[in-house]
Amino acid sequence: MLPPPRRFETDARYYLLRCTRDLWGTLLVSCYWGGKDSRRGNQRHDVVVSATEATLRFTPIARQRERHGYREIQP
After folding, report:
1. Rounded to an integer, what distance in angstroms lies between the CA atom of residue 34 and that of residue 27?
2. Is the four-CA dihedral 72, 39, 25, 48 of positive or negative sign?
3. 9, 23, 34, 70: least buried by Cβ within 10 Å?
4. What is the rounded distance in angstroms from the CA atom of residue 9 to the CA atom of residue 26?
């Protein structure tokens, strides 16, 4: 089972983590970030072997976002 998406926000910025499959079935960890009031932002996609590895990648990223002042937003 894929880990659920996680969203982090500050007053002005957001950071989103998602785990999805591409058109060929490859498992990806996708990170999206940017400003809330801006069209600027970026994204990164990393290939992972399993859902367990995806979950393990989420943990340090989430910890870093929280150290930088982001709050996790529940869907």
Report:
1. 23
2. negative
3. 23
4. 28
Predicted TM-score of the model (pTM): 0.88
How many secondary structure helices (H) and strands (E) does the chain include?
Answer: 1, 5
Amino acid type, 32: Y
Whether residue 75 contacts residue 23, with contact meaning beta carbons closer than 8 Å, is answered with no
Question: Are 20 and 46 contacting, i.e. CB atoms less than 8 angstroms apart?
Answer: no
CA-CA distance, 11 to 4, in Å (whole number)?
23
Instruction: Report whether 10 contacts 3 (CB < 8 A).
Output: no
Calculate the CA 62 to chain-centre distance.
8
pLDDT digits (tens, 9 = 90+) for 8-56: 999 999 999 999 999 999 999 999 999 999 989 999 999 999 999 999 9
Alpha-carbon distance 46 to 23, whole Å?
15
